[in-house]
Amino acid sequence: MNGLPRWVVLPAALGALLVVLPVASLLTRVDVGSLWPLLTSPGARDALWLSLRTSVVATTLCVALGVPLALVLARASFPGRRLVRALLLLPLVLPPVVGGLALLTLLGRSGLLGGVLEVIGIRVPFTTAAVVLAQAFVALPFLVLTLDGALRSHDTAHEDVAATLGARPTRVLLRVTLPALAPALVSGTVLAFARALGEFGATITFAGALQGVTQTLPLEIYLQRSSDPDAAVALSLVLVVVALAIIVAAYGPWFTQAPKLSETSRPGGPPTSPVPAASVVDATVSDGSSSGGTAAGVTATGSAARTPVPLTVRVRVPGRGVDVSLDVPAGEVVAVLGPNGAGKSTLLQAVAGLGDRRGDVMVTIGDRVLAGPGVPTAPPRDRRIGWLGQRALLLRHLSVTDNVAFGPVSRGTARAAARAFARSLLSDVGAAHLAGRRPHELSGGQAQRVAIARALATDPDVLLIDEPFSALDVGAAQHARLLLQAAHRAAPRTTLLVTHDLLDVAQLADRVVVLEGGRVVEDGPTAQVLTRPRSAFGGRFAGVNLLVGRVMAVRDAAVGDIAAGDIAAGDPAVGDPAAAVEGSRGPNGGAVEASTAVLATALGEVHGTTEDALEAEAEAVALFEPRAVSVHREPPGGSPRNAFLVVLTGIEPHGPLLRVWASAERGTRSMAGARGVIDAPPGLGVPGGGPDPMDLSGTGPEQVAADLTPAAVAELGAVPGERLWFVVKAAEVTVLHR
Amino acid sequence: MVSLGAGLVLAGCTPASDGETLTVLAAASLREPFAALETTFENAHPDVDVTLSFGGSSDLADQIEAGAPADVVATADEPTMARLTDAGLVGTPTVFATNVLTIVVPTGNAAGVTSLADLARRDVDVVLCAPEVPCGRAAAAVTDAAGVTPHTVSEEPSVTDVLAKVSLGEADAGLVYVTDAASEPEDIETVPTPEAADVVNTYPVAVLSDPPAPDLADEWVALVTGAEGRSALSEAGFGTP
Q1: Parallel, antiparallel, or unpaired for β B126-129 and B173-177?
Q2: Phi (first) and psi of residue A168, to 5 degrees
Q3: Residue A378 in 3-state DSSP?
């Protein structure tokens, strides 16, 4: 039973009986013979008709006022919002009679407003309008609370995307927010109508009871009960039947749609058309190619006209320690890497104009200053950006074609032209056969392809991509990645790409920027960062061991040792250490000969080769491949340059090998060798265990990896927590300045 | 289920001693005189706890039809009591009090209502009891006899609702029982209504057919119809037969 425990059936049945049994037993009291004359009596007819009219008007009033109220409560932030929300609950708590009294004290003859109204000849109590007001008073909270709950359980991701596509706030509200709210709106409206129809206490107090004017069916029933209980029962039956008919009519469409919605979970999406897939593709493709060209000509945003523009962004949020500046030349794709909380999303949102507006933000796209000191901040819709996120965020109630056409239509393209253009884009991304489908009929990969087409449909100046394929399986992700790559080759576009995926970076990015703790810690061409990373995160991302440390000494191959102490003393014979290193290369006629360098790191002294000009005490990184590391239980014999005493933290499969992870042991500092205590850089303290070393989302303690054959691991027989020696030849270690 | 619920209710009302309980259902307008008589009765019977339950007369009749455990019932009109006698649920009723209607107006009488005939004026908003309830029947009888068609803006389900609308100033005039008018001296004034004297409403009291405390029930009826009862009722504005 859908995973529910069986025992819930009993309280569920009792709950249903609590409601159904009394109503059912009421029906047994109805005298069928007297029913017809009673129902056709003028009193009952008037009361029923009045009840229906007033309830419909009151419900309309509730929707007209309650929907905006719920939107403001859920989405706007203003002081006292919680108080307002609590006050709106009052009509649910107040006895309706007190509610009626409250209305009287406001709108009654001697009330706060009623006195004024009386002067201009308006009398509210004892009128049908008073009935409507009383009903709306008690019914409004049902609608508002239902909608408010639904709104608060939705995030605004769809609204944000619609804004980046150029939709104005009213269009976002009408075309995105309200359609998504439709089920809650229906429930809330039905609840409000039912409450209005059954309203008694506030009505009798505020509006009184007069046949045909204010005497609604509940009042008529109450009065009948004192003289003719059987008539009251019969009239109650009428109320029950009317209420049921309306509720069934209102819920009907949603009940019939329910099975359709459940198909979303079916993998691959259900076949919706009996036509063979191939013929659908042909038809759509030919359609798309015939009209697509004209559409591209019609739209002002035709891709032929656009030339790439540069992007400059600076974000400073002191409260969150974010301070990032980035210049992206026209048409460049920059991958933004970094652990969670490093500021990647903040950067993207700053460019898009989404998210909270705290901090100083400067954004320039081409020659358009979109945010900055003394400049009005441009809303997302005016920034000419495209947004592609982890979720496709297609609008559920629109077809695939209309989703893609949403942006052009929002920017003023005629609907037919926008649709034709959308179809041509869909065929560009290989999704022409999906044109008529609804988003819930698409697989994840199909939805993301449609999202790509939609993001490109407005021909944005800057494309912002946030972990676009992380929710897709490998095949679908690769397909989507190639689509983006092809689109970029056809028309280069300045792009920021936030990702945790090496393939995204390798296939799409020209340049990599690594953020850590809200700062840019690494910035370089993709090939360089992937092969010679200089940040801890960059190293882990590229799959190499990276140790951060300080230069203790540099030994040049030709000149001999340059001791750090000598450099610090400013020996006139050596001079500037950088010059010395450079100078040493001179005589070799440009044939670069590697020097060796010694770093002090969290793991101890690290010896490696370097081609960089390094200064003593400068920050530097040591890189070495996990397969260059050998692992021993005992201290290695002889005198290898690099032997680290480490603690095993985990073992995991890595291709045909096993990757052995370890971190520096607490207390390693004191064993760090001849030079004494290591001055490890801040934030890289010696760890004792730590998080999953492959977890790229966080800055864990410094971890090193060794790749071993399964046989070697078996022979080693080590378990996590055990001490081991990691040994790597100095020739395998590359030292780079930071 | 009913007896269990009633047992709980009675347990809550009964003093620690294992004395008897007398349950009296009475029309809401009898609240004041009956509360005074409760004290009198309990002083005379220290072991007895009198439980008074007030409500609209037809509500009381509904409760008795549904088997509510009670000993005595006093209604505000004879037709309602007739429902119970016809169903054999109560013994022979005794009329113990009378009541007549009067015009009430908000304090200050802004509309200048001075007679029953003024209730027909278009500028006077009148609230009456609905014809389905006893006070409404009485009001209809008074206005019909006087040949007045009141300018009614609302027909309320109870006297209390009529009084509330007049005392709040929402209505210019209403017709209520003199006893009800006496209970709200602050916000309302009464207008002499000689035409109402002919339409006398009578209050019957009766012992239920199978009361839990039959002896005490008879004693309560005797108290209400006796000298002490008449005195308490007169004080509250009732007439006595």
Answers
A1: parallel
A2: -75, 160
A3: coil
Q: Is B30 on the interface with A (CB under 8 A)?
A: no
Q: Does A563 touch chain B (CB under 8 A)?
A: no
DSSP annotation of A569 reads H
List the structure tokens of A42.
């003028």
Residue A547 phi/psi, 5° resolution? Answer: -115, 130
- Give CA–CA dist A350/A317, Å, rounded: 11
Contact A204 B157 (CB under 8 A): yes
Q: Are A334 and A231 part of one and the same domain?
A: no
Question: Domain B101-198: which CATH class?
Answer: alpha beta
The region of weakest confidence among A12-26, A44-58, A291-305 is A291-305
Q: For chain A, what is the domain count? A: 3
Q: Burial code of A669-692, b = ≥16 C-beta within 10 A, e = fewer?
A: beebeeeeebebbeebebbeebee
Q: What average pLDDT score do residues A159-174 get? A: 92
Confidence band, pLDDT 50/70/90 cuts, at residue A455: very high
Q: Which amino acid is at A130?
A: A
Euclidean distance between CA atoms A362 and A421, whole angstroms: 33
Nearest CA in chain A to B106: A110
- The answer on pLDDT for B76 being more than 60 is yes
Alpha helices, H only, A494-625: 502-508, 526-531, 536-542, 564-569, 577-585
B193 and B102 Cβ atoms separated by less than 8 Å: yes
Q: Is residue A301 a part of any domain in this protein?
A: no
Q: Does residue A257 carry a pLDDT above 80? A: no
- The domain in which residue A724 lies consists of 543-552+597-737
Pick from A205, A197, A302: which is nearest to A250 by CA? A197
Regarding whether A382 and A517 lie in a shared domain, the answer is yes
Q: Classify domain B2-98+202-235 at the CATH class level.
A: alpha beta
Q: Which distant-in-sequence residues (6+ apart) come within 8 Å of A155 by Cβ?
A: none
Identify the DSSP state of A374. Answer: T
Which pTM value belongs to this model? 0.71
Helix axes B31-44, B214-225, angle to 10 degrees: 120
A257/A292 same-domain check? no
Q: Where do runs of H (alpha helix) occur along A76-153? A: 81-88, 90-93, 96-107, 114-119, 128-153
End-to-end Cα separation, chain B, in angstroms: 41
CATH number at residue A518: 3.40.50.300
List, in sequence order, every residue forming a beta bridge with A287; answer none if it has no partner.
none
DSSP A332-351: -EEEEE--TTSSHHHHHHHH
Question: Where along chain B do its domains lie?
Answer: 2-98+202-235, 101-198
Q: Which amino acid, one-letter code, is at A144?
A: V
> Taking CB atoms and an 8 Å limit, are A205 and B161 in contact across chains?
yes
Cross-chain residue pair A104–B168, CB shorter than 8 Å: yes
Angstroms from A36 CA to nearest CA on chain B:
20
Same domain for A291 and A225 = no
* Co-location of A628 and A723 in the same domain: yes
From the list A399, A480, A473, A391, the residue with the least C-alpha distance to A441 is A399
> Could you give the CA distance from residue A492 to residue A221 in angstroms, rounded to a whole number?
74
Q: Do B155 and A110 touch (CB under 8 A)?
A: no
Q: What was the ipTM of the complex prediction?
A: 0.74
Is A108 touching B (CB cutoff 8 A)? yes
Interface membership of B155 toward A (CB under 8 Å): yes
Helix (H), strand (E) counts: chain B? 9, 10
Amino acid in the structure at residue A457: A
